[in-house]
Amino acid sequence: MTTSRAAFEPHAHEASLVAVLRALAQAPSWNARALDGLLRQHPRAGRGLFSRSELLAGLDAFSHQLSLGERRDELAEFLRRRRVRTLSGVAPVTVFTKPHPCPGRCIFCPTDVRMPKSYLSAEPGCQRAAQYGFDPFEQTAGRLRDYRAIGHPIDKVELIVLGGTWSAYPLAYRIWFVKRCFDALNRFDDRAGEPDLSERASWPELEAAQVANELAELRCVGLSLETRPDHVSQREVLELRRLGATKIQLGLQSLSDDVLTRNARGHGVAESRAAMASLRSAGFKLHAHWMPNLLGSSQDADRADYARLFDDPALRPDELKIYPCFLIDGTELVESWRSGAWRPYGDDELTMLLADCMAATPRWCRLTRIVRDISAKDILAGSKVANLRERAEAHLRATGRESVDIRAREIRAEASEPTDFVLRETDYDAAGAREIFIEAVTATDRLLGFARLRLPREPAWIEELRDSAVLRELHVYGA
Questions:
Q1: What percent of the chain has pLDDT over 70?
Q2: Cα dihedral 269, 270, 275, 280 sign
Q3: What would the pLDDT profile of 95-119 be if each residue is shown by its tens digit?
Q4: Could you tell me which residue, 291 or 85, shows the higher pLDDT?
Q5: Whole-angstrom Cα distance, residue 109 to residue 103?
Q6: What's the pLDDT band for 3 if we cut at 50, 70, 90?
Q7: Long-range Cβ contacts of 2-10 (<8 Å, 24+ apart)
Q8: Least CB-packed of 46, 49, 202, 307 within 10 Å?
């Protein structure tokens, strides 16, 4: 079941929109308070005030009447909401696979029958997916419509597919899911035709959609999929490459076999090391998940475990999500909590642990998240502080430390001169190869962009990569 919204028609409100935009055009500068005053002077006929997305639609429709010149782009930037999301010109689009059984039996993992395994219906992304009935076409198109409505560029898209263990879904469904995401990009402004509810597609059908996307106005520049280490075989790696994946999210959770066993994870550290090495050698970007506060661990053990992520050449992820273990009602971990065998870390304990982890993260890794976006009402026990990352960053500053991970150093919206940078290289060993992290940084170490170059020491097991260096990632930050 999908939900559609009525499109805003700016020509039906031309007089009011032009009045607001003309007043903005004549103002020497812009701020939210002045904008609010103008909107109240020129309300939308019939209902409330114009939204910023409606003003942007008016700007597109009536800019020829306003003689804005070079200020048009400046005004559009002021009206644009959540600008940081597409500062580098790439729109991240997260879509969810349908609810499906997971091969794992992790004692900390929640089960919500309305959602894919480990996800909860109150999570914002899950709510959007359910709104569109988990249809990949509608999820993709709907998110892109949202971006365009608030003024973001959508010509370059990074698709992020979530939903637990991707590899556990039937292959025909996986091919169909990715194909339908590409269909949404290829047909974004031409939505004619019947919806495809078959949940099956062939490799040639997907390849045709991929080829069409190479010349489409909305292009997929990255595809992220998530799975478990024990599902990464050579056959799976080849299928991931054929799907067009560029980044793999991999749930490592812990680097202690004892902790993994006590939490019924279903695999050991050996499988994690092998999966990371296999995926890296195939050219993928590696986005690992790690969980402190699991049953059988401790704060000191977690600190040592975190260090192993980067000390072990078989691991060394490019990106990392830190997901502290929270107690969700209905999980097997509840029994260990009631018996006293497990307790959640307190807010201060967790803040100090996260700060130590942030300080220990190398400059070539990006800490994408350090807490999962779980609603406080779903947490039976554990920290319910919404801004744990901010608290950890404040603790770092208070103790005279800082994080040098990629996210902490991104230039974002800060001004910089095109020639105001130096190239810096960091070499490290990773899974039988020399990795070179090449970054462009300002004099104050703000990150403008980077490349990940892999120089294998042995022939690759994938034929088309034999005797080749691999540029695993190229990323530019800022507008």
A1: 94
A2: positive
A3: 999 999 888 899 999 988 899 988 9
A4: 291
A5: 12
A6: very low
A7: 2/131, 2/132, 2/133, 2/135, 2/138, 3/131, 3/132, 5/145, 8/53, 8/54, 8/57, 8/149, 10/54, 10/57, 10/58, 10/60, 10/61, 10/62
A8: 46
